[in-house]
């Protein structure tokens, strides 16, 4: 009955969920003695109210788009990539490493550093892809474990290989940097960098690869029905690996944006950044389509950025935004559960 | 009159199509009522309305004279309505009992009282002569048995009215006989049955009354007694249907497919095809007759590259295919109408149009430089939809939304249109209405007349005898006899299929 879930409904489910999430957030504020209108006003002005905030919000949106695309790509091809967090980290460190290790003209150096991030993420996702394809090990388990390996490996690399015993690496040189003096001045010296354009380009690539190419046709086909794909002569194992690799490359690119843009260096992570996990929520809210992921990432960016300012201006604690996000995701997820159940019933009925 | 179920003026619409247009169906207590109609006529839809899976736009349902609102299958269960779907809904790794009690487990404290459940299942099974082993795993039992588990499931939930959606399409002739026996027991125990089937003979054999629908509209309800298959067929299709397939003498030439000393293992690693030899020539249809499970599936899977060949040679036009992957085999000129259309034949969540290019999407004109050309894909889809009378609102409708028979027509269209040198058709007319069967048989014969080789596998002896030019009888993984369809009989085939190597009437030492 999924097809009875019309296009309109598919758009409305996330929209309604967002509205409900904000409403519940307002109630929570009321109950705990804050003024919700002031709270949301502070949130908005803290994310979009001034040039500086807009710049910071856009910078925040960038990795969300990549993480969301990574999760969505795997999902559309029948896989759960819970390892975006780790793939993002290795992408980050790899890009910084290449940024620091070479001395090249920008036109070669920057693409090379970005590519290194993509490759590292792809490689990190290749492992669970391979294990799934060859040994049918479930990718959820492997990707989760790979997250921890990534965390500790990256910390080791940052401390002992890329720096000598420091908590941070050096800054990448200008020739490998995504920093944009132009946008920084335009946004009253925020940390906005060129990454957002790469993120939007990635969303277009996502759309084209998945919907318009023969590779995307195969990947989707394998995601839906492996038996029929095999019958049609597609190489199921190759497609499983390819799907993970592309998904990982998106994640790795997200890491490169942090490494070459937002921060410009690598540092020791005490814990996961959470961007990779938020990617799951972004993909879910965005319905696993390119435009949806961009919009969902924008919402997340606005909420997360605004949350930083909200306590200062209205006294509402930052954690409120986490509640709102959790509730949005709850509503989206439960409506998808409903849709899924209906679809299941129908599958049996046919 | 005593009606247990009355569906009055039911209307059900789907985007772009009216599936049920004011249909009325009244079921008397204790009768077997057939629901007859072409593929896509709206039979499954009507029954899904009764079972609470769809809500009708208009109309009224009465159960035992009382107006009811069946909003979900749970409500249907409470009203004593059970449905056996064509595609079973069983958990493979669970036992029979676990599947049956799922959701209604008898409890002992916090634990499921499996002993009690088992004895209850056993008791029902005995009462209706179902002969089901409550402890067997679903994955280990035959399709026929799985169907009985579905029947048990409805009975366990207290069903008084049982709906069967094409139950015999997946069964072997022997299993069909047994199912009919089960129907009779059910009726004797006071149940009432609605039966959807495309097999007119079955209707005449077991049903009391029949309701005919055509393109979503109720045509008539009549007593089965006194009607003939021809009469029912023309009521349903709206024109006269011939049952005998006309064909000229085959004029076969060279060998297209040549299999020698083939050995193939099944999923459990046991030899399923044993030193098998078989050849199919250009310009002939070879039918494989055999009881299910004698190596037919493994043979087809080996030819099409879906299963590894242990040893032996499969030659297509003198090219050895036995180590090729599926794609290479397809490109070498093999077409395959698979036995299980939902598992192998279609990507149900893809538009039906994309499904029509499932093996050819990477070729021109459907794609160029790896970029899909949706215009060309849809053009091809439209062509096949028209040519093979696939009833669908459009080529962008998901394959899942098509009726079973129309899904099958789409697959057949795709395979025949590729015009392969060897066309393998496994149960090609399973689930098709008589009109569509006639059409498909014509297309198979047309392929033959165009000098192609056709390998037909079917459990329907009538189909095998009507369509084939030679019949190869498979038994225990081996072709034990080749017979001439013009001189053989169903009885003789039946004996051979049971493994008696000698033709009826001939003596031991021939
Ligand atoms: N979920 C759905 N969404 C859209 N259209 C549907 C859906 N289910 C069925 N249809 C359409 O409704 C019509 C009736 O379908 P139905 O499955 O009831 O046919 P049927 O009589 O059972 O045919 P068959 O003998 O081939 O199984 C078909 O044209 C089909 O395409
Ligand atoms: Mg049907």
TrEMBL record, chain A:
GO terms for molecular function: transmembrane transporter activity. The chain crosses the membrane at residues 12-37, 57-75, 82-102, 108-127, 191-209, 240-268, 280-303, 323-342. Keywords: Cell membrane, Membrane, Transmembrane, Transmembrane helix. It is a multi-pass membrane protein. InterPro entries: ABC_transp_permease. CDD domains: TM_PBP1_transp_TpRbsC_like (cd06580). One of its GO terms (cellular component) is plasma membrane. It is found in: Cell membrane. The keyword Disulfide bond does not apply. It comes from the Bacteria. This is ABC transporter permease.
Automatic annotation (TrEMBL), chain B:
One of its GO terms (cellular component) is plasma membrane. It is a peripheral membrane protein. Residues 5-240, 257-501 form the ABC transporter domain. It comes from the Bacteria. The keyword Secreted does not apply. Keywords: ATP-binding, Cell membrane, Membrane, Nucleotide-binding, Repeat, Translocase, Transport. One of its GO terms (molecular function) is ATP hydrolysis activity. Its main location: membrane. Pfam families: ABC_tran (PF00005). Belongs to the ABC transporter superfamily. This is ABC transporter ATP-binding protein. It comes from Jeotgalibacillus salarius.
């Amino acid at each position: 009955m999924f097809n009875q879930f019309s296009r309109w409904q598919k758009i409305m489910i996330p929209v309604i969920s967002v509205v409900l999430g904000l409403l519940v957030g307002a109630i929570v504020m009321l109950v705990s003695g804050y003024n919700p209108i002031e709270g949301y006003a502070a949130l908005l002005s803290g994310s979009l109210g001034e040039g500086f905030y807009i710049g910071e919000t856009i910078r925040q949106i960038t990795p969300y788009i990549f993480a969301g695309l990574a999760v969505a790509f795997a999902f559309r091809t029948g896989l759960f990539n819970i390892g975006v967090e780790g793939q993002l980290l290795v992408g980050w460190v790899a890009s910084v490493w290449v940024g620091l290790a070479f001395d090249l003209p920008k036109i070669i150096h920057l693409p090379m550093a970005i590519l290194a991030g993509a490759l590292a993420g792809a490689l990190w996702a290749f492992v669970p892809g391979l294990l799934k394809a060859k040994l049918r090990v479930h990718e959820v388990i492997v990707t989760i474990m790979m997250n921890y390996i990534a965390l500790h490996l990256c910390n080791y690399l940052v401390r002992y290989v890329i720096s000598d015993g420091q908590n941070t690496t050096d800054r990448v040189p200008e020739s490998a940097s995504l920093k944009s003096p132009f946008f920084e001045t335009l946004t009253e010296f925020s940390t906005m960098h060129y990454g957002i354009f790469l993120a939007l380009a990635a969303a277009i690539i996502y759309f084209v690869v998945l919907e318009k190419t023969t590779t995307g046709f195969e990947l989707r086909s394998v995601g839906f029905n492996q038996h029929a794909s095999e019958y049609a002569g597609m190489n199921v194992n190759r497609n499983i690996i390819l799907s993970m690799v592309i998904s990982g490359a998106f994640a790795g690119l997200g890491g490169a944006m942090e490494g070459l843009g937002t921060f410009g260096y690598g540092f020791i992570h005490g814990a996961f950044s959470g961007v990779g996990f938020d990617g799951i929520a972004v993909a879910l809210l965005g319905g696993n389509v390119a435009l949806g992921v961009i919009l969902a990432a924008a919402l997340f960016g606005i909420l997360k950025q605004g949350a930083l300012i909200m306590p200062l201006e209205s006294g509402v604690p930052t954690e409120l935004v986490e509640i709102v996000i959790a509730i949005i995701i709850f509503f989206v997820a439960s409506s998808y559960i409903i849709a899924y159940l209906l679809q299941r019933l129908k599958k049996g009925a046919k | 009159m005593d009606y247990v179920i009355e569906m009055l003026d039911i209307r059900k619409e789907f985007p772009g199509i009216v599936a049920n247009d004011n249909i009325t169906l009244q079921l008397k207590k204790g009768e077997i009522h057939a629901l007859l109609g072409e593929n896509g006529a709206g039979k499954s839809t009507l029954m899904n309305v009764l079972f609470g899976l769809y809500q009708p736009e208009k109309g009224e349902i009465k159960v035992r004279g009382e107006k009811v609102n069946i909003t979900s299958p749970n409500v249907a269960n409470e009203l004593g309505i059970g449905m056996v779907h064509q595609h079973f809904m069983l958990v493979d790794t669970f036992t029979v009992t676990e599947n049956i009690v799922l959701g209604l487990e008898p409890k002992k404290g916090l634990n499921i009282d499996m002993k009690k459940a088992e004895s209850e299942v056993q008791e029902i099974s005995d009462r209706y002569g179902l002969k089901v082993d409550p402890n067997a795993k679903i994955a280990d039992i035959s399709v026929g048995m799985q169907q009985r588990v579905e029947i048990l499931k409805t009975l366990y939930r207290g069903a008084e009215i049982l709906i069967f959606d094409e139950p015999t399409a997946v069964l072997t002739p022997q299993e069909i006989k047994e199912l009919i026996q089960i129907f009779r027991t059910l009726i004797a125990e006071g149940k009432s049955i609605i039966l959807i089937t495309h097999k007119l003979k079955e209707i005449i054999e077991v049903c009391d009354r029949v309701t005919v629908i055509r393109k979503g509209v109720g045509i008539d309800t009549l007593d089965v007694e006194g009607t003939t298959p021809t009469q029912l067929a023309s009521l349903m299709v709206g024109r006269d249907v011939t049952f005998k397939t006309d064909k000229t003498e085959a004029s076969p030439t060279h060998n297209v497919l040549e299999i020698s000393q083939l050995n193939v293992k099944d999923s459990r690693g046991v030899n399923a095809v044993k030193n098998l030899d078989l050849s199919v020539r250009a310009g002939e249809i070879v039918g494989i007759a055999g009881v299910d499970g004698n190596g037919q599936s493994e043979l087809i899977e080996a030819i099409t590259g879906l299963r590894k060949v242990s040893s032996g040679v499969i030659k297509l036009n003198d090219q050895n295919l036995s180590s090729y992957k599926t794609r290479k085999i397809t490109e070498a000129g093999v077409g395959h109408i698979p036995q299980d259309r939902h598992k192998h034949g279609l990507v149900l969540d893809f538009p039906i149009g994309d499904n029509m290019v499932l093996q050819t999407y990477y070729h021109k004109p459907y794609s160029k430089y790896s970029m899909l050309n949706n215009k060309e894909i849809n053009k091809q889809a439209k062509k096949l939809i028209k040519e093979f009378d696939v009833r669908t609102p459009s080529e962008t409708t998901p394959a899942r939304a098509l009726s079973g028979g129309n899904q099958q027509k789409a697959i057949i269209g795709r395979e025949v249109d590729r015009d392969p040198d060897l066309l393998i058709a496994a149960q090609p007319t399973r689930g098709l209405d008589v009109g569509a069967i006639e059409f498909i048989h014509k297309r198979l014969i047309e392929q033959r007349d165009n000098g192609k080789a056709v390998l037909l596998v079917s459990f329907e002896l009538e189909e095998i005898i009507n369509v084939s030019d030679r019949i190869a009888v498979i038994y225990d993984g081996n072709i034990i006899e080749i017979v001439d369809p013009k001189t053989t009989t169903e009885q003789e085939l039946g004996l051979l299929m049971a493994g008696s190597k000698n033709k009826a009437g001939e003596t031991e030492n021939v």
